[in-house]
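Researcher: Next entry in the queue.
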Amino acid sequence: MQLCLQHNIKYAVLTENSPSCGSDYIYDGSFSGAKIVGSGVVSALLRREGIQVFNQNIVGRLRKLLEVSRDN
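Model: Structure for this entry, 72 residues:
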């Protein structure tokens, strides 16, 4: 978190379904492969600090945000 704040990180791309990095869904911890709606601990921490979190499946949305930011 300290490095993100020092470098003014605004966006993060993390792996969906991971208990630490999931941004929308995480595995439920039963080792059965079942997923639940929720955020992983890293995703939750980053969001709490104002960093927008994306998963690897929606990188196109992040690309559009970066293009808009660059143009402004």
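Model: The longest helix spans residues 59-71.
Researcher: Noted, moving on.
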